[in-house]
Amino acid sequence: MxxxxxQVSGLGVAYGGIQAVKGIxxxxxxxELVALIGANGAGKTTTLKAITGSLPxxxxxxRYRGESIRGLAAHTLVxxxxxxxxxxxxxxxxMSITENLLMGAYTRRDAAGIARDVERMFGIFPRLKxxxxxxxxxxSGGEQQMLAMARALMSRPTLLLLDEPSMGLSPIMVQTVxxxxxxxxxxxxxxxxxxxxARLALKAAHRGYVMDSGLIVMGDQADRLLSDPRVRAxxxxxxxxx
Length: 242
Hints:
Layout: E1 6-15, E2 18-28, E3 33-37, H1 44-51, E4 59-64, E5 67-68, H2 74-79, E6 82-85, H3 97-104, H4 111-124, H5 126-130, H6 141-153, E7 159-163, H7 171-186, E8 190-194, H8 198-204, E9 207-212, E10 215-221, H9 222-227, H10 229-235
Parallel strand pairs: 3-8, 3-9, 6-7, 7-8
Antiparallel strand pairs: 1-2, 1-4, 4-5, 9-10
Helix pairs in contact: 3-6
């Protein structure tokens, strides 16, 4: 049986005296796109930050490729194939698009491969190619989201964590971003997606988890969650029976 690429067991994260994540379990298998949905403040972003080493955890364990990653720095995780696109995009505003992409490959030493991947990113994100020399801070929100995703892909991740990629974007740009998410998954990158738009997230995903008040309250195949009346009422804006 294939081992999980990511296994989170009993994870607890506390901010001061507040327990933001209360002992959750989740797994991501190689090649999966797994969605983590829930209301604002449920603990989704905190979970991703703990996985990537941005926040210490107070309990439990996180294993990546079968090994504990407790205490490993974010750049070490990137070198091992675990990358994250944070909420709010976080592009280098005073650098050009091309320079941002090169920053995404800072752990790599294969100059020819990096150059090929820059061109590959321009193929995936044609808008970025048109503006290659433009400062990232002058891009629209949607273009910055594309750049943040492309920059993370430049590290050639095995597992990519996406935190709220559609936040603040126009409906058309949201559809474009999710099309890219599906294409990235189709290329074989494993994805853990935190997303406020539960419907789009579950439609794109293989499996999903529902998080509420620091706990995982449901986990199932994505299509089953989409049809579950509790999920439809709480997260898809539908009343029972609609």
